[in-house]
Structure formats: C-alpha cells, structure tokens
Q: What sequence folds into this?
C-alpha cells in the first residue's frame, strides 16, 4: 500500500506513529511492534484486510483506506523525498477512478495549486472500477487467459509509469479478446483465420459485430473498432509519445469496450445454448 510507504518515509519516531494510531482509535487493531517498519506493516495488513473499516476524522467517519491516503498526502506534499511515491500513489488512484485534488492558494508572486487530498475523477454513474472488476471476472470465467495477461500488463505498466508499454498492451489486449471471442463462438471457421483483422471480419460476417451500426468495417471507413485500434497505439512503442493522462484514457476506453464485447459474448453463448438445448426453456 503506497500510502503506508509514504508514511514510513516521513515519520521519524515511534511516538509519531503511535500518535497517528491513537488519533484514529486503532490501538486495539494495530499493535506496536517495536519498530516503525513493523508497526506500519501491522497497519498496512489491517488496512488491506479491512479497507472499509470506519474511523472518526474531522470530516466525520471515513474508511481507513481513504484516511491513510489523505494522511500520506498531507505529510508528504512538498517533501522531495516523497515525490516518486506520490507519483506512484497518483497512478494507483487513477486506475481506481480517483485523482489528486488541488486548491488555489496565494503564492509569493502569483496563485499556485496546492495538493490537498484526492477526489473521484468521474461521476459515480460511470463506474469504471466496477467495469474493470467485471471485465476481469468475465475473462476468468471464459478462460481468456491471454487477454487477461495483456490487461494485467497494461495496468501494471501504468503503475510503473511506462505509458508507451501500457498503450501497446491495450491494443494487444483488445486484439487478443476479439480473437478469443471468435475462437469460442465460431471455432471451426476461426481456425483458418489469422489473428486480428481476419477474426474481427469473421465476427462481422457472423453478425456479432454490426457493419450497419459502424461497429466494424474494412478499409479506411470510420467505424468504431478499427478506429479504436488506431487510437490505442498510433505511433509504435517509442518513448515520449504518450503521457499519464493519455495512457489512462486508452486503458479506460479499452476496459469499457471490453465489457461491452464480453457482455455481448455472454448473450451469444446463452442464445447458442438455448438453440442447442431448447428443452431447457420448458
């Protein structure tokens, strides 16, 4: 948990750490262990196992995970030792649908933006973290292991700040997913098709993807999936062509698209089962 790493970096004495634990009434849950590192390990373990445990703060009751993130931000902002860990924390928050929060304060010469905490990055109805979890569940249920590995790699590359590698993995994930869907739904016809374009063409031929609705098209037509493939990785895996916000946008678009494809795949499997075993309707 990156927030605990920041706290460990900044806090200098056991007394400071025990004061933090008492502040949030965690003395019974988090036992002192003789050193800052060991006590923080106990705190980290408790927070990971009980992320929704409520503690009282000046802003009312809040989950312990949110409180520790806020505390890490408060004690680390402006401390150069924590810059890389704050960057890492921001990347993890972005993946979960949150962003750092800033407020404008008076500066010596002009107003400046000061980091004050974190906030949800999109309206709750967008539900990106929930979409991501459902995508992972559906990938596992269908044994789409290759696609799952590429999605995991895309997320991991973002947490490591390797934007170009994440972009590449997003495109490879989408291709692996459409390949797997074609193989699963139309195994005989898919066997003779090459990965990527030819298998997406098969999905269009079979009606899984609609040409009329511009979900897929050949050539340079303005259709969704070919356009998305170009958007995901237009310039090759070269350093300097992307940044954190671009890479996160691509991952979010891919997650939402994957959920749409996987839910459609789920319906197609159900319909195939009903056609094969109509007695199940009776």
A:
């Amino acid at each position: 948990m990156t927030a605990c790493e920041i706290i460990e970096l900044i806090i200098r004495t056991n007394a400071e750490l025990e004061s933090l634990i008492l502040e949030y009434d965690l003395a019974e849950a988090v036992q002192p262990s003789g050193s800052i590192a060991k006590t923080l390990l106990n705190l980290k373990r408790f927070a990971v196992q009980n992320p929704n445990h409520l503690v009282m703060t000046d802003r009312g009751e809040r989950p312990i995970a949110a409180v520790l993130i806020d505390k890490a931000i408060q004690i680390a902002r402006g401390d150069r030792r924590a810059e890389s860990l704050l960057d890492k924390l921001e990347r993890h928050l972005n993946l979960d649908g949150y962003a750092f929060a800033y407020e404008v304060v008076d500066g010596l010469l002009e107003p400046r933006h000061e980091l004050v905490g974190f906030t949800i990055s999109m309206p709750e109805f967008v539900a990106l973290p929930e979409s991501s979890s459902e995508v992972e569940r559906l990938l596992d249920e269908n044994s789409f292991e290759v696609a799952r590995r590429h999605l995991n790699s895309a997320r991991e590359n973002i947490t490591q700040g390797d934007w170009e590698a994440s972009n590449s993995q997003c495109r490879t994930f989408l291709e692996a997913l459409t390949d797997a869907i074609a193989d699963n739904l139309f195994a005989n016809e898919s066997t003779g098709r090459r990965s990527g374009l030819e298998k997406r063409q098969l999905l269009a031929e079979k009606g899984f993807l609609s040409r009329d609705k511009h979900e897929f098209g050949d050539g340079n037509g303005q259709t969704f999936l070919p356009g998305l493939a170009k958007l995901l990785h237009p310039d090759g895996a070269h350093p300097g062509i992307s940044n954190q916000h671009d890479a996160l946008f691509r991952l979010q678009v891919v997650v939402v698209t994957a959920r749409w494809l996987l839910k459609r795949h789920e319906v197609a499997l159900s319909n195939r089962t009903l056609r094969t075993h109509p007695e199940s309707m009776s």
